[in-house]
Amino acid sequence: MRTLNVDFSVFPVLKTERLLFRKLEDADETVFHRMRSEPLIIRYLDRAPDADLEATRMHMHRINTDQGNNMAIFWMLELRNNPGVAIGNIAYWRMEKENFRTEVGYTLLPEYWKKGIMKEALHKTTDYIFNTCGFHSILANINPDNQASASLLTSCGFKREAYHRQNLYYNGKFIDSEIYGLLATD
């Protein structure tokens, strides 16, 4: 019987031609707070912004705990020609190891949008998730109004698998969601 055993005790630093994928650090709290609270960045995430830095620190602690328990992997993104300056993140979480399935999520600072950065990050990390970790499928759950994310996912080979009508309740209203999926065999 096949089993999935992931081990992030040695953090997997990844690189592409333009990007460095590194561990979330305490020094990232200010930029990470921006990623979790700026209206333009979170407008399609269907959750409240972090109220303050303490809320962001608590989220960072949850990320590191889940990573330490091998239940998630979270990379901060930097441009290799500008090290030490985080510009976004990409994470795999909600790991269903018994089903060899995980969910991807990502954010990028607006000044780096439309440069192919997240496409490069998604390609690199899906390769790692499939070929190093051994997952079979990745899902992405997006707000249907987020056409940039839908375009990114389809350009990376994800297929739209489902459209859920009013399955989320946020901010006093029911909202829809779209599910995209990518198989290791795609």
Structure, explained:
The chain is of the alpha+beta class. It has a single domain, classed as Aminopeptidase. It has helices at residues 29-37, 39-42, 53-68, 117-133, 147-155; strands spanning 14-15, 19-22, 73-79, 86-96, 101-108, 137-142, 159-170, 173-183. An 8-stranded mixed sheet has the order 1-2-3-4-5-6-8-7, sandwiched between helices. Strand 1 and strand 2 form a beta hairpin. Helix 1 (29-37) packs across helix 3. The mean pLDDT is 96.
What profile does the largest beta sheet have? 8 strands, mixed
In CATH, what is the homologous superfamily?
Gcn5-related N-acetyltransferase (GNAT)
Query: What's the number of structural domains?
Result: 1
Contiguous uncertain segments of 5+ residues: none
Order of helices and strands: EEHHHEEEHEHEE
What's the CATH first level? Alpha Beta
| Residue share in β-strands | 25-35%
What structural category characterises the helix and strand content?
alpha+beta
Short description:
This protein is an alpha+beta fold. It is built from five helices and eight strands. The chain has an eight-stranded mixed beta sheet, sandwiched between helices.
Q: Helices, strands, pairings?
A:
Blueprint: E1 14-15, E2 19-22, H1 29-37, H2 39-42, H3 53-68, E3 73-79, E4 86-96, E5 101-108, H4 117-133, E6 137-142, H5 147-155, E7 159-170, E8 173-183
Parallel strand pairs: 5-6
Antiparallel strand pairs: 1-2, 2-3, 3-4, 4-5, 6-8, 7-8
Which descriptors would you attach to this protein?
single chain, about 190 residues, alpha+beta, Aminopeptidase, 8-stranded mixed sheet, 5 helices, about 30% helix, globular
